[in-house]
Fold this protein.
Amino acid sequence: MSRVLSRDGKAWPAARIVRHVSELVRLAGPVIVARAGILVMAVVDVIFVGRYGTSDLAHLALGSAPFNTLVGTGAGLLIGTLVMTANAFGRGALAECGAVWQRGTIYAGLLGFAGFAICLFGEPILLLLGQTPEMAAGAGRIMIILGLGLPAGLIYTATAYFLEGLKRPVPGMVVMVLANLLNALLVWVLVFGVWIFPEMGAEGAAWASTLVRTFLAAAMVAYVLGVADYARYGVKRWSGWRWREWAKQRRIGYGGGASVFIESGAFMSLSLFAGWIGAVALGAHGIALNLLALIFMVALGVGSATAVRVGIAHGRHDWKDLSLAGWTGLGVNSVVMVLLGIVLWAIPDSIAGLFTTDPALVASVTPLIALSAFILIVDGGQVVMANALRGRGDALVPALMHTISYIVVMVPLSWFLALPLGHGVLGLYEGILIASMVSAALLVGRFQWLCRRDTLRDTMTG
């Protein structure tokens, strides 16, 4: 039988690798579409608002930055829903899966309302962070409108995690495709004032996002409760709080939430730095960041699928399969990111022209898109490894590694490159590249060390 070497020098049968790649792709495909769908909506918003006006685009970019931090943090805190569903599914304890979903949706709603309360103070927060009164007022209104949809958005996320943990990601994909069609219609109507609707600019795009998030949550919850097949998972049978399981589910999410909060908060700092440079720099940053984030959703989808594969293997205590699942995720993601990076590197000016017709904005964003070709390779790799670690229950150490990479390294380095060194908005992306390289190296090393420890422990006890 054909064999290839693992990272510890031992041979893996090629058939096992083929199986892992096949199952990863089958699971990751719909997950990628669902994850990318959120960012496709954001990119559509940027395209419409960018053609509406540069100042409105700046308001949308600045208001979306702290809101995206709240969304990402909430999604990270809910990652325990995916991991514990996958663990229970791997053990064959199907009735426990519904209890995980119930706790996840309640938790999601509470997190969403807490996030909305923060959004209500968007304008004074942005003023304290050094933004101009005009920028803070416009972006603050965007935050409030987006915040109204945060509870529904997180309930959708918890339900999507539940289905992915059961290896059933297709419903989330279908609902997301429908949501994108709805969003494109609503953005066009509300931004430009079509039919009986007033012309709302960036605020119209924010209202469209809130309405679409409400649709996503309602559709997903209705699907889980309405399809008879899910009754065997206990979705309609209230399982009580069971504080031990509730605490474990939340504890897994603490690491994920901390990691995303750290990373998202660091990227929000870059939006503030871009705002200090000027409106054109902030608009260019908004375009480049949304494009990078859209491609990043591919890596996040592969990462979520990797977390499921690792989580199922962890539930079976199959350490060899766990290791192979993690490395397969990294390998598949690296190939995809290189291919997508080639496209960004080859035609950055053409891609910039899709977002805006402002010559100054095109000139500012084109080099950012070209540099993003390299960023997404290492940034995608680090998110896959972080999800692999969370899938095996290792949550806090990856959060610490993200702190080192994105708070200790990226924020001060990006500020120094962009402002004192005079690289402008391009310096922000040079900082992202270096920090992502640091994060990827740390997380890869951590996963490799844990795999070796698990194998050694299995050998000693076997």
